[in-house]
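Protein entry
_____________
===
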Amino acid sequence: MSSSSSSAERLSQIAGHLNFPQGLLAGQVAIITGSGQGIGAEVARLFANEGAKVVVSDIDAKKAEDVAQSIKSNGGSAVAVSGDMLDSKYIDELVKKAAEFGEGKINIIVNNAGFTWDGVIHKTTDKQWDTIIALHNTAPFKLIRAAAPYFRVKDGAPRSIINISSTSGLHGNAGQANYALAKAGVTGLTKTIAKEWGPQFGVRANTIAFGHILTRLTAAKEDGAFVTTPDGQKVALGIPKAQGDTKAKAGFEDIPLRRPGSATEAARAILAVASPLFSYVSGQTISVTGGRNI
């Protein structure tokens, strides 16, 4: 047998092991926070396409319902459970409804919900600081804690927690002391979950740190995107146009691929980490940056 035919045979055997006719996530129940738009919505659709039963969680009820309906109209399984991740009662309700939807099980949590509220250190208010830490650290912790009875289970079923971070958390970023600290904290939370719930229950936990992904957080600030805090304050999102234009004119020279990533590309990375293709990967921080910061 030639070496080329031997290699082809090995590849065929590998392909056979990686054959998932019903989808990479068939039968798994996934909570995806912040999935009414952007990366989260793309994750919801990709997960559904791979056989998952998707719980669309978002503060915007209409957007959450629209995503769930689009999934169902394409033959997938989804339910919208809208609410504010800063509300502990909502987190409990989210877990309860997800478990009901999943007929007593939850397999995947993607902690994706969040936004930026930038300010240089000496001008950052307590409210800016507290809100970002609560949303990116405390809320994911509370969701994971509330879902513990569905993850600390010895039944051999796959279970995975994916916490979304940012290169701001890995390297810091001027004007984002609150966001950088919160996203750095995500890494510690992830590693702790992996060490606590991996040995007995086989739960995998990983962090994905995104670089420049095309979302409302990286669009021109002048486009007018904003979020509203629970007390009604509007927080402008995006990058000031002059700053964004400078990066565009430079051709994103600090990114080896010379372009930002799309929301779909970001979502594919999350799907990969949640899938059985990453079954022996846990406790890691995976940078999805187009090569930036290497």
Observations:
- DSSP finds ten helices and nine strands in the chain.
- The chain has a mean pLDDT of 90.
- The two ends are 42 Å apart (CA to CA).
- The first strand starts at residue 29 and ends at 33.
